[in-house]
Amino acid sequence: MIEAYTVEQIRAVEALALARDGDATLMRRASFAVAAEVAERVPAPHPGRRVVLLVGSGNNGGDALYAGAFLRGRGMAVTALLLSPERTHAGGRAALRRAGGRILTHDDPAGPGIIARAEVIIDGVVGIGATPPLRAAAAELIGQANATDALRVAVDLPSGIEPDTGQVRGTCFLADVTVTFGGIKVGLLIADQQAGTVVNVPIGMDMTGRPAEVIAMTDGSLRQVLPAPAPAADKYSGGLVGVVAGSPGYPGAAVLCVGGAVRTRPGMVRYAGPQAAAVVARWPEAVAVDSPADAGTVQAWVVGPGMGTEGQSITLLRWVLGRDEPVLVDADGLTILAAMPALLQARRRAGQPTVLTPHDREFSRVFPDIELDDRLAAVRRAAWVSGATVLLKGHRTLIADPGGQAAVNLSGSSWLATAGSGDVLSGVVGSLLAAGLPPLLAASAGAFLHGRAGQRAQRAGLFGAHALWDHLRADPDGIG
Ligand SMILES: NC(=O)C1=CN([C@@H]2O[C@H](COP(=O)(O)OP(=O)(O)OC[C@H]3O[C@@H](n4cnc5c(N)ncnc54)[C@H](O)[C@@H]3O)[C@@H](O)[C@H]2O)[C@@H](O)CC1
Ligand SMILES: Nc1ncnc2c1ncn2[C@@H]1O[C@H](COP(=O)(O)OP(=O)(O)O)[C@@H](O)[C@H]1O
Ligand SMILES: [K+]
């Protein structure tokens, strides 16, 4: 599991490390790690390689200057552009000067040409002391840096992202790699397009025992959380999931959703709705009936994909939401819920677990008072006010539960932005709920599996949500 922290948490642990090891030692470790990352990525020979440092007024700039001094020691040609010459880290500046680096101010007329010819650009404008958006001079330099083909390396964080939320307001350094210190900041997981590859270097800070602000699944952690079928398993012990989806207008949603569930876990899928014939034609292993009341026992329900939003659909949703088992509500089910919030409140009062899986538009329908500009805060708030676990779909799917735990999904690709892929996801997550995973884990593991399936389908050159079925690999050997 990847764990990410807030600036406040990082600062608390940093204070302990500072008290023990001292400022200079920590900064030496941090800047050495940046230099080592650059040296590893820049093809040999190193002497003469053109490195530019963008240096802000805090310790982040100090890190960049010391890293520049190390690289100068390998013979690289290092130029620092200082944003606030009078407030630049004095030790770092002296170290770079001693090493033979060139030091200019940000408005030096030679600056744009130097940036344009750089082979490596190191962003030391701001780190965890950032209050975005970037000031004009910093934004100007970073805009120039982003327009080059140089290797772009961010120190601690790409300047321009908000460290605790990943929000990007205005210009942001577009890093190929971010070397971060002590622990991964939440914003780095969310603003992945700006952060590039994230390399975490402990530099003597120990986050052990600190509760993560946000977690993220990895292939390894997924292997650990997926319940393996026991040798004595039978079709009932793997978890039975009930699917209420599809309508005469949307038969495909039922087939896609059942497919997601069938391909995620062994056990049994019980479909209940008007598309029983279509479902069984594609998934003969599913048991299909016309009404959920006839479906028999299940351990979790999925309700909503393509079910319609009027008449009989409302009755069906109401019936499912009255059940004690965990219920995942998606798509049309969410649209109905937006008009009938009391249904959700009743489940909350009864202590019945619910998972909601909206995309942005559905989210705004169900939670019209919650702005989506800070997506992490939005999904947390939605979970808090609804009492449900909320999975907010998107490029970076975010998940929060009512207890305050949050997760971000790191798998997937924009290949998944195709009609019906959300229907498959709801089947996947429903299947994991039925297998007994708690809602936050079921949603996180399901989003991760779905994302990996999308990546595999993309590699295979297959388009269409149904292609995900063949790439869903929830068996321990198939993960990764
Ligand atoms: N405390 C320490 O000893 C260590 C600090 N480290 C580095 O120090 C960083 C934190 O240093 P600081 O607390 O000095 O903070 P930063 O250097 O991250 O940022 C603060 C400075 O940036 C300026 N700034 C803030 N918002 C800005 C904006 N929107 N546009 C332009 N300038 C802006 C502020 O005026 C301030 O001078 C970490 O991210 C890390 O890189 C590491 O060297 C490890 C050890
Ligand atoms: N740009 C993207 N990058 C990664 N994943 C994406 C992107 N756009 C959409 N997705 C994923 O694709 C799925 C789309 O779901 P949804 O919008 O509900 O589709 P539908 O309603 O057609 O089934 C979600 O899992 C979402 O996270
Ligand atoms: K930075």
TrEMBL record:
Domain YjeF C-terminal: 218-480
Isomerase recorded as keyword: yes
Binding site for (6S)-NADPHX: 59-63, 127-133, 156, 253, 306, 359, 423
GO function terms (MF aspect): ADP-dependent NAD(P)H-hydrate dehydratase activity; ATP binding; kinase activity; metal ion binding; NAD(P)HX epimerase activity
SUPFAM superfamilies: Ribokinase-like, YjeF N-terminal domain-like
Keyword terms, alphabetized: ATP-binding, Isomerase, Kinase, Lyase, Metal-binding, Multifunctional enzyme, NAD, NADP, Nucleotide-binding, Potassium, Transferase
Needed cofactors: Mg(2+); K(+)
Enzyme Commission numbers on file: 4.2.1.136, 5.1.99.6
Residues annotated for K(+) binding in this entry: N60, D123, S159
Catalytic activity of the protein: (6S)-NADHX + ADP = AMP + phosphate + NADH + H(+); (6S)-NADPHX + ADP = AMP + phosphate + NADPH + H(+); (6R)-NADPHX = (6S)-NADPHX; (6R)-NADHX = (6S)-NADHX
Highest taxon listed in the record's lineage: Bacteria
UniProt-listed GO biological process terms: metabolite repair; nicotinamide nucleotide metabolic process
Cofactor binding comment, as recorded: Binds 1 potassium ion per subunit.
Residue ranges constituting the YjeF N-terminal domain according to the UniProt record: 1-211
Pfam family, one: YjeF_N
Annotated residues for binding of AMP: K393, G394, H395, R396, T397, G422
InterPro entries in the record: Carbohydrate_kinase_pred_CS (IPR017953), CARKD (IPR000631), Nnr (IPR030677), Ribokinase-like (IPR029056), YjeF_N_dom (IPR004443), YjeF_N_dom_sf (IPR036652)
Quaternary data: Homotetramer.
Family that this chain belongs to: In the N-terminal section; belongs to the NnrE/AIBP family.
Function: Catalyzes the epimerization of the S- and R-forms of NAD(P)HX, a damaged form of NAD(P)H that is a result of enzymatic or heat-dependent hydration. This is a prerequisite for the S-specific NAD(P)H-hydrate dehydratase to allow the repair of both epimers of NAD(P)HX. Catalyzes the dehydration of the S-form of NAD(P)HX at the expense of ADP, which is converted to AMP. Together with NAD(P)HX epimerase, which catalyzes the epimerization of the S- and R-forms, the enzyme allows the repair of both epimers of NAD(P)HX, a damaged form of NAD(P)H that is a result of enzymatic or heat-dependent hydration.
NCBIfam families in UniProt: yjeF_cterm (TIGR00196), yjeF_nterm (TIGR00197)
HAMAP family hit by this protein: NADHX_dehydratase, NADHX_epimerase
Descriptive protein name: Bifunctional NAD(P)H-hydrate repair enzyme
